[in-house]
Design a protein that fits this description.
Blueprint: E1 3-10, E2 13-21, E3 30-33, E4 44-45, E5 50-51, E6 60-62, E7 65-67, E8 79-82, E9 87-90
Length: 92
C-alpha cells in the first residue's frame, strides 16, 4: 500500500508532519503535500504552499524561498550570514 505525507496544522502553522496510508482521509486541519512542496514543523501554510520560517529579518521571500539581500559569493570559500552588517562573512 502506498503512503502519503500530511502536514497537521494549528491555524496556519505546521505543528507536525506525518506519513499516512493511501486511504487516509485528510481532515480539516491537515494538508497533503509532495516533495515538490515540502513542509516542516513551524512552517506557515498560506493556502497554496508552505513558507519556512524567516532566517533573518533582512531576508526577503521569493517563490517560497527566503533570499539574502546580498548574493552569496561564489569563490569556493565557506560563508555565514552576518545580520548586523547585512553581508556574508568568511566562515571562521
Amino acid at each position: 500500500m502506498s503512503e502519503r505525507t500530511v502536514a497537521v496544522l494549528d491555524g496556519n502553522i505546521v505543528e507536525n508532519v506525518i506519513v499516512v496510508p493511501a486511504d487516509w482521509t485528510v481532515g480539516p486541519n491537515e494538508v497533503e503535500y509532495t516533495n515538490a512542496t515540502p513542509a516542516g514543523i513551524g512552517w506557515e501554510w498560506d493556502g497554496t504552499g508552505f513558507i519556512p520560517p524567516q532566517p533573518y529579518p533582512s531576508w526577503v521571500l521569493s517563490n517560497y524561498v527566503w533570499e539574502a539581500p546580498v548574493a552569496l559569493p561564489d569563490d569556493g570559500q565557506s560563508y555565514v550570514w552576518d545580520e548586523a552588517t547585512v553581508s556574508w562573512q568568511v566562515a571562521g
